[in-house]
């Protein structure tokens, strides 16, 4: 028997580990199972190169609960340790690493350091245990060793009669951590952190039906046997080559990742790179629609098949945080609890790679089956539009596959759109005017007027469209976007032809003055326009600039400061060539008020602005005219 004192200047280091190094106590199980996996994989390597003259076999890792004894066991069949190795790796390296860590990060120990660099994973056991034992037998022909420590710098190291290769870690669970003796809790942690570890993990047993014998009698009852309950999938889809996977394999893996998700993913992107960094993974595009209230933190980050976190900010470009799936890379630097990213040049390279890979995949999908891509557009557009705004490298490639749908369900790329509308929608100043609507039903009358002119109207209804068109206008000379209800169609796309007014200048001034006294000045600016006699007498429009700035302000940035709090302002466009304009002008004052009120309400109704008491009064008044 040997005993001793661990050589460390920080007195009673275990409470410090418990307090500072790990913000989440439950990860102790992840660390211990990860260590067991490492020990097993190292043995596999040594046997493959002939350095270990033993049979590798089919090793597993077993996790067992002894609730009565208040113990948790983690058992592996890996390469094990000799007594000298226990002394070296458990008593010296880990504690010198811990001392170095605490000295280096004494002011911010909670958030810094890399666990793999310090060898601290084993000591996470003391977050939940009042005493820890290691019983280990090396693959070398040497006696087994038994190490015991009660959470102080004191330890004992004795020989043991264990004959099977591998290590057993025994945690004597502390009174404040008895939740980790519950079967459901351990199963939950193994499923969360170790679901895809590369070595099979046994947790208890389960019943499995025996095959029915061919000569079984009619009253045969199915027989069951107890088999190992393996809780993980050691060979998840992302560890395989894309050529070895079918579409059904990808969908099955999606269900494995998200068992409570019932919608099928739209498509997937398989990541696989080994230079200049190592990264594998599968990203899925789920159905999303045009909602800015997006669920993030659905991409899971792994290191060598060990779950780390679902906060992938920094690794995955922000716009792709809306996707689902898995990323696995040993080259991503993490802090001591493997839960937070550290600043590193590789992280940006990985982010750029993922951006490029996603763009290339989208282009490929577009080219291979454009019709299918168009059908999925409304479910993916918010991600792609956000990507165009937030990632310059993605924006550069987006022109090849980002679509602009019309109210007639035609889909154009920007280059195709410009070519299609140039003959008809170029104004007298040589500017190409792209008309768009944000709501097909609410703006139907305006869309209809544009269609009568032979114009095409886009349907752009995502919440960030104002930001996007602002960027497109800045990057495309002589291109402007105008919402179809921003003005009368002849004002939106001005041609050389001018319509002459039936009214004289004096009559127009008189008409304008009369109408201005009858409409609320705080919301409406009266404008007289010489339009076609068949055009609507009264039209309500919302100026493009003010409305766009308000929308940009509402969705974050881009607008003038405080613009989002400005009241909605509208133009009331009066067609001087309409019969109604002439009738109003020639009517007595009381009749003018009734005509203007009815015409204004009709214009408001077409814009969806007539509501509440005003709508009730309008309906009542309209019925009275039918008597």
UniProtKB/TrEMBL annotation:
The keyword Membrane does not apply. InterPro entries: HATPase_C_sf, Heat_shock_protein_90_CS, HSP90_C, Hsp90_fam, Hsp90_N, Ribosomal_Su5_D2-typ_SF. Keywords: ATP-binding, Chaperone, Cytoplasm, Nucleotide-binding, Stress response. One of its GO terms (molecular function) is unfolded protein binding. It comes from the Bacteria. Pfam families: HATPase_c_3 (PF13589), HSP90 (PF00183). ATP binds at residues 31, 35, 76, 81, 96-97, 338. Belongs to the heat shock protein 90 family. This is Chaperone protein HtpG. The lineage of its organism: Bacteria, Pseudomonadati, Bacteroidota, Flavobacteriia, Flavobacteriales.
């Amino acid at each position: 028997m040997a005993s001793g004192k661990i050589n460390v200047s920080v007195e009673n280091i275990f409470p410090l580990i418990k307090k500072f190094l790990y913000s989440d106590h439950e990860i102790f199980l992840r660390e211990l199972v990860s260590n067991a996996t490492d020990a097993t994989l190292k043995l596999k390597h040594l046997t493959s190169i002939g350095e270990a003259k033993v049979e590798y076999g089919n090793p597993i890792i077993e996790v067992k609960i002894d609730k009565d004894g208040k113990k948790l066991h983690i058992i592996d069949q890996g390469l094990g340790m000799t007594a000298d190795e226990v002394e070296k790796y458990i008593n010296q390296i880990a504690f010198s690493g811990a001392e170095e860590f605490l000295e280096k990060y004494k002011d911010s120990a909670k958030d810094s350091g890399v666990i793999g660099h310090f060898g601290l994973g084993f000591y996470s056991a003391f977050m939940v245990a009042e005493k820890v034992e290691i019983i280990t037998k090396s693959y070398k022909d040497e006696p087994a060793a038994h190490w015991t420590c009660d959470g102080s710098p004191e330890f004992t190291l004795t020989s043991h009669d264990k004959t099977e290769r591998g290590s057993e870690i025994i945690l004597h669970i502390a009174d404040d951590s008895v939740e980790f003796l519950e079967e459901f809790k351990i199963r939950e942690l193994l499923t969360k952190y170790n679901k895809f570890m590369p070595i099979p993990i046994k947790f208890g047993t389960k019943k499995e039906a025996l095959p029915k014998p061919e000569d079984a009698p009619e009253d045969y009852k199915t027989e069951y046997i107890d088999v190992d309950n393996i809780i993980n999938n050691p060979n998840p889809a992302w560890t395989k080559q894309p050529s070895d996977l079918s579409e059904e394999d990808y969908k099955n893996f999606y269900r494995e990742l998200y068992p409570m998700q019932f919608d099928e993913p739209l498509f997937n992107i398989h990541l696989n790179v080994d230079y200049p960094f190592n990264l594998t993974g599968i990203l899925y595009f789920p159905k999303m629609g045009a909602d800015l209230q997006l669920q993030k933190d659905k991409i899971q980050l792994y290191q060598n098949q060990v779950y780390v976190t679902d906060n992938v900010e920094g690794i995955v470009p922000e716009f792709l945080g809306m996707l689902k799936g898995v990323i696995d890379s040993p080259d991503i630097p993490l802090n001591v609890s493997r839960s937070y990213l550290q600043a590193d040049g590789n992280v940006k390279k990985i982010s750029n790679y993922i951006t490029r890979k996603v763009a290339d995949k989208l282009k490929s999908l577009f080219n291979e089956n454009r019709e299918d891509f168009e059908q999925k557009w409304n479910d993916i557009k918010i991600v792609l539009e956000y990507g165009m705004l937030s990632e310059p490298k993605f924006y550069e490639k987006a022109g090849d596959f980002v679509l602009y749908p019309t109210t007639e369900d035609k889909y154009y790329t920007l280059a195709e759109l410009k070519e299609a509308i140039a003959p008809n929608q170029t104004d007298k100043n040589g500017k190409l005017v792209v008309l768009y609507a944000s709501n097909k039903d609410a703006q139907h009358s305006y869309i209809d007027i544009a269609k009568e002119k032979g114009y095409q109207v886009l349907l752009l209804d995502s919440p960030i469209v104002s930001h996007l068109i602002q960027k497109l206008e800045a990057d495309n000379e002589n291109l402007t976007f105008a919402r179809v209800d921003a003005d009368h169609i002849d004002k939106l796309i001005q041609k050389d032809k001018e319509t002459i007014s039936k009214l004289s200048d004096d009559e127009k001034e008189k008409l304008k003055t009369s109408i201005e006294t009858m409409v609320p000045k705080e919301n409406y600016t009266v404008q007289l326009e010489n339009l076609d006699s068949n055009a609507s007498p009264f039209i309500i429009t919302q100026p493009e600039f003010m409305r766009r700035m308000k929308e940009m302000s509402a969705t974050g940035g881009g607008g003038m400061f405080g613009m989002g709090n400005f009241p909605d302002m509208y133009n009331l466009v009066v067609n001087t060539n309409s019969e109604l304009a002439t009738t109003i002008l020639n009517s007595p004052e009381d009749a003018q008020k009734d005509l203007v009120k009815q015409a204004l309400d009709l214009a408001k109704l077409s814009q969806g602005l007539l509501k509440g008491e005003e709508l009730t009064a309008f309906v009542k008044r309209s019925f009275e005219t039918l008597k």
